[in-house]
């Protein structure tokens, strides 16, 4: 694996491989066993959008692996003043060992990988959020012990999270149902990909139908970063696309709830459901650290024998 650009690029085996290493790193981390697998290496972290989890988990993860991370904000880099990403890629490749980037266009991430000569990790674009979905899959397997035979239901905006979850969950063998308003469906290439899975994929505009017998319920904000001007329009469009008691009653009695965070209580999820499933949601947040350490080890070398 050279880069992590999107879930569509990964095979089932590569995903499971990352998750296995993430489980191992988590166990070792909890037991005080340190592996400086990236000793002497530097990760540049380019942020063109805000972040709490991604920034802190990458920076801490890199430190735990014996390397260091540089926080490169859009406000400080020349990229923010228009220096082409193709040039930035070639310059950074001469100083550092890997790049994590959070930005708007997926093309920018793909260009960084094409023009640079070091691994690139996608820390979220408008199209996808693969690091988050690897942590989500890790959490599902941790709580449920398997993927086969499980049904994941996503309710809300057909955004970066929906795009990555659909692909990731189908690839590992889960059934996927999605409820979103007609005008906010996931990306065309994701729907094309999902079509190949036949009855294992179901999309509707009815949250209740999608939630039927679900083992895992996911949602995300109605307004993603960069869409703030549409907030009011989106509040109207997504009314009813909420994980609440009625939705929980339609799912399996032992259904778990996941949210990538930040969450807006009273919008995509009620405060009651959020708090009742806080253990699962914050384990998911913790797993960002372990899953990303596994990704960095895979793409930046130094994998354990
Ligand atoms: N879930 C997630 O990516 O969180 P941040 O935006 O805080 O990084
Ligand atoms: N869909 C959200 C995810 C945040 C982690 C956004 O892009 O803002």
Portion in helices:
40-55%
Number of DSSP strands? 9
- Please give the order of strands in the largest beta sheet: 7-6-5-8-9
The sequence of SSEs as H and E is HEHEHEHEHEHEHEHEHHEHH
End-to-end C-alpha gap: 16 Å
Q: Which CATH first-tier class of the largest domain would you pick?
A: Alpha Beta
CATH architecture of the largest domain: 3-Layer(aba) Sandwich
* Biggest β-sheet strands, sense, barrel: 5 strands, parallel
Number of domains: 2
Basic shape: globular
Rg value: 19 Å
Spell out which ligands are present: phosphoric acid mono(formamide)ester, norvaline
Which tags fit this structure?
305 residues; alpha/beta; Rossmann fold; 2 domains; five-stranded parallel β-sheet; four-stranded parallel β-sheet; 9 strands; binds phosphoric acid mono(formamide)ester; binds norvaline
Account of the 3D structure:
The chain has 305 residues and is α/β, with parallel strands linked by helices. The protein folds into 2 domains: 135 residues, Rossmann fold (3-Layer(aba) Sandwich); 155 residues, 3-Layer(aba) Sandwich (Rossmann fold), CATH 3.40.50. Helix content is 43%, strand content 14%. The protein is built from 12 helices and 9 strands. The strands form 2 sheets. The chain has a 5-stranded parallel sheet. Strands 2-1-3-4 form a 4-stranded parallel sheet, sandwiched between helices. α4 links the parallel β3 and β4. The radius of gyration is 19 Å and the shape is globular. 49% of the residues are buried. Phosphoric acid mono(formamide)ester binds next to α2.
């Amino acid at each position: 694996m050279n880069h992590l650009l999107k879930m569509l690029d990964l095979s089932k085996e590569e995903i499971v491989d990352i998750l296995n290493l993430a489980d191992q790193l988590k166990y070792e981390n909890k037991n005080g066993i340190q592996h400086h697998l990236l000793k002497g290496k530097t990760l540049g972290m380019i942020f063109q959008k805000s972040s709490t989890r991604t920034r802190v988990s990458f920076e801490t993860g890199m430190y735990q692996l014996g390397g260091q991370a540089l926080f490169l904000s859009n406000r400080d880099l020349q990229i923010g003043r228009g220096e082409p990403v193709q040039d930035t890629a070639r310059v950074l490749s001469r100083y550092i060992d890997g790049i994590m980037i959070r930005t708007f266009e997926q093309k920018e991430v793909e260009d960084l990988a094409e023009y640079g000569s070091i691994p690139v990790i996608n820390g979220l674009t408008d199209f996808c959020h693969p690091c988050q979905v690897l942590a989500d899959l890790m959490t599902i397997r941790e709580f449920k012990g398997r993927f086969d035979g499980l049904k994941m239901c996503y309710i809300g905006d057909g955004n970066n999270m929906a795009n990555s979850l659909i692909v990731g969950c189908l690839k590992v063998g889960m059934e996927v149902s999605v409820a979103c308003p007609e005008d906010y469906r996931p990306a065309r290439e994701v729907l094309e990909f999902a079509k190949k899975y036949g009855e294992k994929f179901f999309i509707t505009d009815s949250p209740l139908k999608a939630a039927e017998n679900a083992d895992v319920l996911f949602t995300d904000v109605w307004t993603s970063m960069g869409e703030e001007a549409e907030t009011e329009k989106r509040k109207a469009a997504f009314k009813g696309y909420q994980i609440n008691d009625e939705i929980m009653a339609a799912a399996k009695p032992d259904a778990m709830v996941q949210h990538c965070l930040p969450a807006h209580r009273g919008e995509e999820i009620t405060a009651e459901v959020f708090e009742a499933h806080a253990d699962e949601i914050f384990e998911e947040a913790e797993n960002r650290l372990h899953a990303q350490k596994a990704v960095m080890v895979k793409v930046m070398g130094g994998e354990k024998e």
